[in-house]
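Backbone-to-sequence.
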């Protein structure tokens, strides 16, 4: 009879140990999954959303957003960024990108979504913003950056802005903003232009 009690007690202890170990493993797995998700949607250098996450979020917003309050995007590019990399090196260029990302996050409204689009280009999705509102935000941002020193450098940006039209998808909306950005660069840089 004593052996049955000892075996039962051992089983209970093993079961408790197993349950604790399993519970701990599930907690660790949940933490690791959260880390993996964050890494999958975040630009490693700037900490902003990456292009894949931007594409997903913008497509979702376009799909559910009514035109009542507007949805606009701005694409901005650091003017003459290549000269920073050429003159000071790529690590300094990285510091400039990181500093600009922080400035973008601090300058935009809470509901706006800021992402690194690639290279020295960033996208801001302006939720509940007409073209007029987004242009005002972009002009304010452009002026603020032109009047400050970022990572010890005087920078300017060019910005293209587009408001969602009824037939837009994420790609066409970004394409119109990108076209406006390149026109701003051709017209002399350090300016904001609206898409047609």
């Amino acid at each position: 009879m004593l052996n049955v009690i000892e075996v039962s007690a051992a089983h209970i202890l093993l079961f408790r140990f197993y349950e604790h170990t399993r519970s701990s493993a599930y907690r660790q797995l949940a933490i690791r999954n959260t880390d993996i998700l964050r890494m999958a949607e975040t630009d490693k250098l700037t900490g902003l959303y990456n292009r894949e996450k931007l594409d997903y979020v913008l497509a979702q917003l376009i799909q559910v957003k009514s035109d009542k309050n507007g949805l606009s995007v701005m694409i901005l590019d650091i003017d003459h960024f290549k000269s920073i990399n050429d003159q000071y090196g790529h690590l300094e260029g990285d510091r400039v990108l990181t500093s600009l990302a922080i400035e973008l996050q601090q300058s935009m409204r809470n509901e706006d979504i800021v992402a690194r689009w690639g290279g020295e280009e960033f996208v801001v999705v302006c939720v509940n913003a007409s073209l007029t509102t987004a242009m005002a935000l972009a002009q304010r941002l452009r002026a603020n950056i032109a009047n400050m020193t970022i990572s010890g450098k005087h920078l300017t940006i060019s910005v293209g802005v587009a408001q969602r039209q009824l037939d837009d998808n994420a790609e066409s909306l970004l394409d119109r903003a990108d076209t406006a950005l390149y026109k701003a660069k051709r017209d002399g840089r350090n300016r904001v232009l609206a898409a047609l």
